[in-house]
Amino acid sequence: MRAQVRATRRGExxxxxxxxxxxxxxxxxxxxARLDLLLFSPRLGDRPLPPEEISRIEGHPAAxxxxxxxxxxxxxxxxxxxxxxILELPAWTPRDCLxxxxxxxxxxGVQDPANLGGIxxxxxxxxxxxxxxxxxxxxxxxxxxxxxAAGAFLHLPxxxxxxxxxxxxxxxxxxxxxxxxxxxxxxxWPPPGRxxxxxxxxxxxxxxxLGRNVAIPMRGVSESLNVSQAAAVLLWRAQSALQAxxxxx
Length: 249
What we know:
Elements: H1 2-9, E1 16-20, H2 22-30, E2 34-40, H3 51-58, E3 63-65, H4 68-75, E4 83-88, E5 104-108, H5 113-125, E6 130-134, H6 143-149, E7 158-161, H7 164-171, E8 175-184, E9 196-200, E10 212-215, H8 227-244
Parallel strand pairs: 2-3, 5-6, 5-9, 6-7, 8-9, 8-10
Antiparallel strand pairs: 1-4, 2-4
């Protein structure tokens, strides 16, 4: 059991993620997630969850009870919430990420798992169709990414592409690259229709030789936003424009 958790946490088990915390596990179960392993300890009873959610955890077919001491070893410290699960993530293809009528998000070297999760959470909230990732970036199998995504990985298609730039070019959609040094967004951005929003590496930005660089206007001394914050702002504008049938409201 410990070896299974360690291997999954290190990303050695494809399509699986370790999820810690009573709330996250309860939400995953409520959304019909498939679990390979579900462990709970007596501390689960101290969590501020509705009784039916605690019962759902304890009564799951995969559930096993362990001691608080064993849970502490599995979670790496005494601050655990009495629950740990190994969750199966959906297997998405690049084509799955184009379903619907929303924008496509393309991540060009985003490395921080928390940023990947935050971007996925914003993408789901603001109607993006999915996320394409350049190979080598952060992956949904990282527990920090899953926590930051707040369950978005169960619903939003995400795929890693070996031919990242070629696939984007082949779409033939307008490409907008978020950049601190791009053209400041005006009130008429974006134009109507679907597009690709490219978000680059946290330090060096995007290396994509496609599209137009755009920047979010800011006041004060701030030079840039965190990449997940920028994603939320830009995707909100994109959704607003799609809903209005033209320029954002």
